[in-house]
Every structure is written in structure tokens, then in C-alpha cells.
Design brief:
Blueprint: E1 4-9, H1 19-22, E2 30-35, H2 41-47, E3 52-56, H3 73-79, E4 83-86, H4 89-94, H5 99-111, E5 115-120, H6 124-128, H7 132-143, E6 153-157, H8 171-189, E7 194-198, H9 203-210, E8 217-220, H10 227-236
Parallel strand pairs: 1-2, 1-8, 2-3, 3-4, 4-5, 5-6, 6-7, 7-8
Helix pairs in contact: 5-7, 7-8, 9-10
The protein binds 2-phosphoglycolic acid (PGA).
The site of 2-phosphoglycolic acid has 13 residues, from strand 8.
């Protein structure tokens, strides 16, 4: 298995980011990726050292065309991205993205040579109803194209109710879902994919969470906005 991965999801933030601070992120046993808003991809790529990978937060499923306001995977690649987050719950919720759309976007990302970070996760109502593993199974089945492989796809398990709330599942709950995801991918694709945990990961819990079975790093929102906390997480999960 590859190194563990600390992936920062800046969401719609970062215009005033401390780029000198990020340029000093640890270059060691953890792979580091920052996914800023689209307009900052080129800036970060030309400012930060090569060992820090740059990713995007969404892409369109078509290569080009009359899609006002959208950006294609190929354009992101050209701007300097190597990865793209797809199917984040904030896009599934606020933009009505379906598993089918996420699958089409994932195919486009692969065609452009980007690694897709495909997000899945249950709502609090689904967890309380005991539906978590069913939701994960259906979402993975619908969001991943047949061409997905451990080279071009990373999965992020992000319980919707843990994102930006400071709440996290128990270690047992995280391990249960990650093991389920690993089993499902093994059964369909015959290999072991990287699986990130996302949702209120911070310096204090990163080491414990990333040492759980089938946890290969984190997708970090709020705590990725400062180089101090993101750097501390990157060190903690190595
Ligand atoms: P959070 O966000 O770390 O702020 O909870 C994670 C994410 O939405 O990817």
C-alpha cells in the first residue's frame, strides 16, 4: 500500500491563505494534497513545491461544450491539478448530484488523467435507522465506473453529520465502514483501494483514526485551512 494521504479540502476558502506556511508542509512519510477553489489551482501549483499535490473539488462530465460556469477535468489537469474530489456531500446536497452524475464525472476525471477522490457517507437519519452500510454499498455501486482502479480512484468515507460539526463516529464505527468499503471494492474490482476518512479530522484525533484498519489517511476540511493544523495532521497520520 502507498503512503498515507493527507488531503485538504479548502471548499470556498483560501484567498488569503498563508502560502509560505503551506510551502513548508512536512515532506516525509505522508503524501500531501491540497484541493483549493478552482481559481487558486494554478497559483498553488506554481507557488508550492512539487511534493505537495494540487487537486480540484469538482468537474463536469463533458470535455467541453455549452455548460456555463462549469470546468472540465481536462481543464483542471491543464491548470495543474492531479486529483479531483467528486460527489462531496455538499455537492450532492446543494447541487443535487446523483450517484449517476458522480459516476460520469469520475469517468471524465479518469479520461483526463486525474485521480478521482469519490466521497460517500450517510446522513444522521440514515445512521440512526441502521442504514449506514446499505447507503455506502448503494452509493459506491452507483458512483464508481467499471474502469475504476486503485491507480485512478481513492474513496473518502465522510459521514455527512461529522462534516464541519466537530463530531466524529466512534473508532469502531469508522473501522466497520472502512472494512465494508474495502470488502466491496475487493469483490467488484479485485484490489485494495486507498480509503480516506473525512469529517472533523483534526490534529488531536488524526493519529488514532488513521491507525484504524483500512484507513489510509484523511480528507480534511476546516483544519486544512491553516498550515499549522494541516501540517500537524499530516505528521500525525504518517
Ligand atoms: P471538515 O470537512 O474536516 O471541516 O469536517 C471535511 C470535508 O467536508 O471534506
Amino acid at each position: 500500500m502507498d503512503k498515507k494521504l493527507a488531503a485538504g479540502n479548502w471548499k470556498m476558502n483560501g484567498l488569503d491563505a498563508d502560502l509560505a506556511g503551506f510551502a513548508a508542509l512536512p515532506n516525509g512519510h505522508t503524501e500531501v494534497l491540497i484541493c483549493p477553489p478552482t481559481t487558486l489551482i494554478g497559483v498553488l501549483r506554481s507557488t508550492l513545491p512539487e511534493y505537495i499535490k494540487i487537486g480540484a473539488q469538482d468537474c463536469h462530465s463533458e470535455v467541453s461544450g455549452a455548460y456555463t460556469g462549469d470546468v472540465s477535468a481536462h481543464m483542471l489537469r491543464t491548470a495543474g491539478a492531479s486529483h479531483v474530489i467528486l460527489g462531496h456531500s455538499e455537492r450532492r446536497d446543494a447541487h443535487g448530484e446523483s450517484d449517476y452524475q458522480v459516476k460520469e464525472k469520475t469517468k471524465a476525471a479518469h479520461d483526463a488523467g486525474l485521480v478521482a477522490i469519490v466521497c460517500v457517507g450517510e446522513t444522521l437519519a440514515e445512521r440512526d435507522a441502521g442504514e449506514t452500510l446499505d447507503v455506502i454499498r448503494m452509493s459506491l455501486a452507483g458512483s464508481l465506473p467499471d474502469g475504476a482502479s486503485s491507480d485512478n480512484t481513492i474513496i473518502a468515507y465522510e459521514p455527512v453529520w461529522a462534516i464541519g460539526t466537530g463530531r466524529t463516529p466512534t473508532f469502531e464505527e469508522i473501522a466497520e465502514v472502512h472494512t465494508c468499503i474495502a470488502d466491496l471494492l475487493q469483490a467488484r474490482f479485485g484490489e485494495r483501494f486507498r480509503i480516506l476518512y473525512g469529517g472533523s479530522m483534526k490534529p488531536e484525533n488524526a493519529a488514532d483514526i488513521s491507525s484504524l484498519p483500512f484507513v489510509d489517511g484523511g480528507l480534511i476540511g476546516g483544519a486544512s485551512l491553516s498550515p499549522e493544523s494541516f501540517g500537524a495532521i499530516a505528521k500525525a497520520i504518517s
